Amino acid sequence: MHTSEDAEKIAALYALYEQTMFYDARQILHDDFLAEDAVHEAFLRLIARRDKLGDPNSASVHSYVKKTLRSAAIDLYRKNLRERENCCDLEDFEIAEEGSEDLPTDALSLLGELPAKYAAVIRCRAVHGLSVHETAAVLQISEACVRKRCERARHMLQSKLDTNHPARKELTK
Q1: Domain span holding position 130
Q2: Which of 23, 76, 109, 138 could be a cystine partner for 104, CB 3.0 to 4.6 Å?
Q3: Tell me, what DSSP letter sits at residue 96?
Q4: CATH number, residue 69
Q5: Are 132 and 124 in contact (CB under 8 A)?
Q6: Residues 84-126: pLDDT tens digits?
Q7: Among 40, 56, 85, where does a domain finish?
Q8: Does 8 share its domain with 44?
Q9: How far, CA to CA in Å, does 155 sit from each of 6, 78, 86, 158, 173?
């Protein structure tokens, strides 16, 4: 149950630490928007554990706030790293050695050969530049489904490039 004392404690924490938390998160994430998200996530964690917090000015609370922020920032960094690894960019499908007129220079020319649900994900991610979250919202599917379809589409495109052009199996990454 929230009390006015809890609200005052969280307000004091915010007033004392918000700017330094943002700075620390920015040092870890190298992105202002992600740093804001990390600070937000850290405060959500602090609110959930508000009963364990003592005086906002104490060294132990200061240390706990820094550890909570660091953990939130690292979790966010890892989440974004996984999304980038699962990201489908058409650059992933460009052929290493270009120059032959009969070879496609990228996977865009092969999108029509993919099943519609996979082509839609590639178009959203690679052509329109949408994030996994935005693609999921547009296609009304889960983020996990977006990542899986991206992975499957990548394999299908790789297979089509290998099948259509056996002499040029290497893809740039």
Answers
A1: 90-164
A2: 109
A3: S
A4: 1.10.1740
A5: no
A6: 655 554 444 443 333 333 334 455 677 778 888 888 888 888 7
A7: 85
A8: yes
A9: 52, 24, 12, 5, 14
- Would you tell me how many other CB atoms lie within 10 Å of the CB of residue 67? 11
Question: What is the residue whose two structure tokens read 């200061």?
Answer: 62
114: which 2 tokens? 């993919």
* Amino acid making up residue 20: T
How far apart are the C-alpha atoms of 28 and 13, rounded to whole Å? 21
CA-wise closest residue to 5 among 40, 58, 65, 56? 56
Note whether 14 and 43 are within 8 A (CB): yes
Global model pTM greater than 0.85: no
* Helices within the chain (DSSP H only): 4-29, 32-48, 59-85, 116-122, 132-139, 143-164
Residue found under tokens 């939130």: 72
Q: Which regions of the chain are under pLDDT 70? A: 1-2, 83-108, 164-173
Please state, as a whole number, how many other Cβ atoms lie within 10 Å of the Cβ of residue 25: 28
Tokens of 14: 């915010």
